[in-house]
Amino acid sequence: MKMKGKYGEIVRSDRTFDVIAAVLGCIIIVIVMVPLIFVAAASFSDPDLVIRGEVLLWPKGLTTKAYTMVFENKDIWRGFRNTMFYTAFGTIISVTLTVLAAYPLSRKNLRGRNFIMMAVLFTMYFSGGMVPTYLLVKDLGMYNTIWAILIPNALSTYNLIVAKTFFENSIPEELYESARLDGCGNISMLLRIVLPLSKAILAVLVLYYAVAIWNSYFDALIYLKDSSLHPLQIVLRNILLLGQTEQMGTNDVGMAEKIKMAEAIKYSVIVVSSIPMLLLYPFVQKYFVKGVMIGAVKG
C-alpha cells in the first residue's frame, strides 16, 4: 500500500477491492437477513395471509395467537428445558475434553504427539458409520438416556485443532519455563497460566459447541425413544415435517384450520428456539474474531 504524508493515501486497486468487498458483504447480509425477517414477520401475521404469500418483510393481520399456543404447549416447554440442559452440560463436557486434549498436544515435549495427532485427524475424515455407532451406544447402555446426547459427539476434531494451535502460538514458551522454575506442574500451568490467557479461544469453543448442540436433532432422533427426553428441535421437526398439530390442541377444528395453525405455529417456534443463541452471541462476540484468527492461523 502506498503511503502519502502522515495519514497515507489508498491506491486505486485497494479502493476497488474495498468497494467490491463492501458490495459482496451487503449482498451476503441481505441473503442472510431476508429469511430471518420473513420468519419473524410471518410468526406475527395472519396465517391466511402467510399461506397466500402476502407477507414478506412486515407482519400483516398482526396477531400473537401462535405464540400463545406455543407457550401453552407442554411439549414445547419440556423440549426447551431438555435442550437447555443438553446445551449447558454438553458444552461444559465438550469444552473440558477439548482443553484437556489440546493442551498436552500443544506441548512439544509430549512423546508421540505427532502420531496422536495423525490418529485424531484420521477420525476427522473417516468414521465407523452410523450403524456401528448406534450399536456401540446401545451396548454401552446409553440408548434412550441423556448420555446418548452428551457423550458420542462430545469432542470435535476441528475444535481440538483450533484450540491446540491457539495454545501453541499464543502462550509464550518463556511462561512455561518460568512456571516450571517456580515448581508448577502441568496441571498447575494449565489452570493458572494457560486458561486465564485463553479467554478468546474458550469463548469460541463455547459458542461452537453450544450452537451445535442446540441445533442438533439427529442424535435425539435415533437414540431417544422416550418423548420426555426429546429436545426442542425434535418437537420443532414434528411440527414442520410431520404436521402434528394435534399437540397444539387443534383436534376439534377442521383440516383447513389445522393447516393454518401449523403454518403460524412453525414460524413462532422457529423464533422461540433461535432466541437463546442470539442472546449468547453478544457475550462472546468480543473474543470471537480474535480466537478464530489466532487459533486457525499458524505463526
From TrEMBL:
Residues 80-280 form the ABC transmembrane type-1 domain. The chain crosses the membrane at residues 20-44, 84-103, 115-135, 141-161, 190-211, 264-284. One of its GO terms (cellular component) is plasma membrane. It is found in: Cell membrane. It is a multi-pass membrane protein. SUPFAM superfamilies: MetI-like (SSF161098). The keyword Transport applies. One of its GO terms (biological process) is transmembrane transport. This is Carbohydrate ABC transporter permease.
